[in-house]
TrEMBL record, chains A, B:
SUPFAM superfamilies, sorted: FMN-binding split barrel (SSF50475)
Regions that span the bilayer: none
Pfam families to which the protein is assigned, alphabetical: Pyridox_ox_2 (PF12900)
Domain of life the protein comes from: Bacteria
Protein name listed in UniProt: Pyridoxamine 5'-phosphate oxidase family protein
Length: 210, 210
């Protein structure tokens, strides 16, 4: 049995490999953070960064402040990459290729003395190299910043990376095209802000996206 | 004040426009579904489709079955599109352009008699035109399928679509490039499955992604 067949037969699989988890998180820009508010579930998108064995979450919305006001709140954090659409010969067998991590833990605000470090980690995670191109945060800005951390201790990682289930004797109409359409995120041309001079060179952090 | 300035001054805004909500949902392939299990939050990615004024959710994981086993379970469902990275001249003012919907409601399994319709809606939502290219579900397949529905009644939509906050007198170093790097999802070349003949033409549903 080839690796490909093996993948096809068991297309969805969990993995405990920390390298898979770390890469998946390192490629993420948004995480979906779930918590319980007055007995009801709430899910919010937040910016994400990884700092070793903890996940950092950054958001400035009202509900983000709800989270931040707690000394610790139980959360579930999901990070998902949709890598492709899986075309089968039956409607039922259509699927998606994806990598997902679902984390469970307690989110706590990063300590004041660690805030600048945490903000740098999130900024560099989202836009590598940007931190040194721009003005650092002032004490007032840091005071207005909240970053939450969740330890990467209880995580479920699932990966589907395979074609559609099929075999020569499956009774389907094999003249129908089956396969995968891979999906990925790309950057379009940068749009300068109104007061950015037209002769201002694109910095390295922007060029890295092109 | 121009629209652009207005957007820059109030870059994050809610909207009650159902057209914005519908378009945002119609472009989504994955939703993050949060619920409470034994008092703790859980967030899972699920495939998504919109059927008029209800959101349909489809997933086959174990926890999806947890959801499906309930006659009704309170959920929060988030759909987020990351449209761009916002580069400012200070670390603090970096941001992201996005469109997000956060829905609150009770998820219930679609009635057995409606399952085929619901599966068709989700399939056509994810891959327009595919339903008529492939074999329809058998009664056995439908019995093994669960689709959840959530009414689109309590939804919060937020959109940020603007450059970085800036003005001529903001004290920042204006020789630093600021602006937006737009992001979008693209499809790569389709990969045929092992038993798809090399002469099999790409169907219309696949070509639509290219």
């Amino acid at each position: 049995m080839s690796d490909r067949t093996r993948l096809t037969r068991k297309p969805e699989r969990g993995t405990d490999d920390p390298a898979v988890l770390h890469r998946l998180l390192d490629e993420a820009r948004i995480a979906h953070v779930g918590f319980v508010r007055e007995g009801s579930p709430v899910v919010l998108p937040m910016a994400v960064g990884r700092d070793g064995d903890r996940l950092l979450l950054h958001g400035s919305t009202g509900a983000g402040m709800f989270l931040a006001a707690r000394s610790g709140i139980e959360v579930s954090v999901a990070v998902t990459h949709l890598d492709g659409l899986v075309f089968a010969r039956s409607a039922f067998d259509h699927s998606m290729n994806y990598r997902s991590a679902v984390l469970f833990g307690v989110a706590t605000p990063v300590a004041p003395g660690e805030k600048e470090h945490a903000l740098k980690v999130v900024t560099e995670h989202l836009i590598p190299g940007r931190w040194d191109e721009v003005r650092s945060p002032t004490p007032k800005e840091l005071a207005a910043t909240t970053v939450l951390e969740v330890p990467l201790t209880e995580v479920s990682v699932k990966v589907r990376a395979a074609g559609p289930g099929e075999d020569a004797g499956d009774g389907e109409d094999h003249s129908v095209w089956a396969g995968v359409v891979p999906l990925r995120t790309v950057a379009d041309d940068p749009i300068p802000s109104p007061i950015t001079g037209s002769s201002t060179a694109l910095p390295r952090s922007v060029r890295a996206f092109l």
